[in-house]
Write a sequence for this structure.
């Protein structure tokens, strides 16, 4: 179940109309109709000042920020949820937690007490590789899910392009900094649409 400690601190109650939430939930429900290979999930709509985004918790709780829901139509938002379902399917949340701990431990051992900054940077570099791998795995899953449900995966590529255009591309200060190589991701989706 979603950690309610996020509510009130980072997340606020949604401002989306009930009809809009229902339309998005209906589009996402088409994925669940594909069968048991689609992970169990619960959608949560929240407002946040962080910018347009969505994230999945290891429990299958998927949080959609109002600003993301307003960026595209219900089908395009569902495409982003398909990507988040890929993270749940591949257990990326738990894997990231484990890998983060291991990477930090190994970097600390390797660099010793010489510099926590150096070991922190080394850990960040190694973790960014995992992040790219996880994003690719989630994209591959989303493309398959979109195709299997009779939808064009182009909806995900369109949302990625819209996010990149509106919020600053792949730079370090970008909203997309946690989703590296946006152009390469779009190219992959375009190449595997059918």
């Amino acid at each position: 179940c979603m950690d309610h400690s996020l509510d009130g601190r980072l997340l606020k109650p949604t401002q989306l109309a009930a009809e809009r939430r229902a339309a998005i939930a209906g589009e996402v429900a088409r994925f669940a109709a594909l069968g048991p290979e689609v992970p169990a999930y619960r959608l949560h709509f929240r407002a946040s000042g962080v910018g347009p985004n969505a994230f999945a918790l290891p429990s299958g709780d998927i949080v959609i920020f109002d600003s993301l829901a307003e960026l595209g139509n219900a089908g395009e938002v569902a495409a982003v949820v398909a990507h988040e379902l890929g993270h749940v399917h591949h257990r990326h949340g738990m894997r990231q937690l484990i890998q983060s701990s291991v990477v930090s431990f190994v970097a600390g051992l390797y660099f010793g007490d010489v510099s926590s900054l150096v070991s922190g940077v080394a850990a960040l570099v190694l973790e960014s590789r995992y992040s790219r791998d996880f994003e690719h795995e989630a994209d591959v899953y989303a493309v398959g899910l979109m195709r299997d449900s009779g939808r064009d995966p182009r909806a995900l590529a369109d949302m990625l392009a819209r996010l990149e255009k509106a919020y600053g591309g792949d730079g370090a200060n970008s909203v997309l900094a946690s989703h590296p190589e946006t152009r390469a991701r779009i190219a992959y989706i375009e190449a595997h649409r059918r």
About this structure: The radius of gyration is 17 Å. Strands lie at 12-13, 42-47, 54-56, 61-65.
